[in-house]
Design a protein that fits this description.
single chain, alpha/beta, Aspartate Aminotransferase, domain 1, Aspartate Aminotransferase, domain 2, 7-stranded mixed beta sheet, 14 helices, 15 strands, about 35% helix
Amino acid sequence: MYYEDSADFAASLDRDDPLAGFRDQFEFPSQRGGREPVYLCGHSLGLQPKRAAQYVNEELSEWARRGVEGHFKAARPWVSYHRNATGALAALTGASTSEVVAMNTLTVNLHVLMTSFYRPDGQRRKIVIESTAFPSDRYAAASQIRMRGHDPGRDLLEWQPRDDQLLYMDDLEALLQREGAHTALLLLPGVQYYSGQVLDMPGICDLARQHGCKVGFDLAHAIGNVALELHEWGPDFAAWCSYKYLNAGPGAIAGAFVHERHLAADKLDQLHGWWGNNEATRFEMCVEFDPAPGADLWQLSCPPVLSFAPVLASLGIFGEAGLSRLIEKSQRLTGYLAWLIEHRFEGRIGIITPAEERGCQLSLVVKDSDVDARQVFRRLTELNVIGDWREPDVIRIAPVPLYNSYGDAFECAERLQLALDAD
């Protein structure tokens, strides 16, 4: 695509952007040092939708007016509140509505799902993660192995990136050729958090099936960012948070997917709780557990409505914008920012995120040996460019198509120039 390195060109792209108006539906941080914010941290925490406060206040009002009767008589009854998110989550993940449920938080969901899907059997007891996995995923997998009486030092296998910090399917295939018969589960991301690389999820599912392994995905950096077809690809399970690209607020209610082939209640063991009981019989207070249909069976407790409300607010915006249009804009917007960085800073700033395997995120490394990368990040922050730093040497930025503009991309490059050239 043709690009120009000028503010006028960026402004022309914004004028022609059919999604530009969604920017006005979000709250932005304050000025810093007289500069407007360039918020490029949606990969870590999405901005607040303006309608989030409205949704929370509506539930506070229902609580005030109705008290306990809000469970059944609120405009969005609390007893079935999670179902307000089901359709949107199914659309975002390429799943059927029976396969998804909004519940808990991400690591809790990984544990709940691994209780069902990590079932060591004789020599088949190992879990494969990527060696650069987000720490919480590593801790969760290691603790599951330990709690089943095995040794993570022996049974937690690592898919290693190459020198370019990227993961290659050939290496995963070679690992499974050696260890597939001993592997119970692959627990891998949809998008690798450090590099921003979008992994070959359908290829991973195929490999798992070939070697008789279960497969689960952590979609924290994928949902709302890249196209997903979970039902078609066929992982056994997946989990995600909703505070990154889904813009639902810090610690907001997460989600889970269980493929329909596992939804018969007699096929797996689950951790059971009151909200996993069939809603039709839940309030009969039966001694015997009556399993809820679909992925709802994996619920444990009633949803915290006040922290769930912003999830619905944000999902409504996704429905209005349309994921396919957002992905199309994301490819252009991130492509423009990548071009600006490569055009201006060749030899000084590198991008480790592969151009053909990325969503919004760009992971930058400072290659100029005369410049301290931490100082560059600190100066960018002072210039009110909000991204984040990941050890040992990566600056992560992500132009999010719902609320970032081409003007943001251009201004990021302008301020990056200042940060690099500062004394």
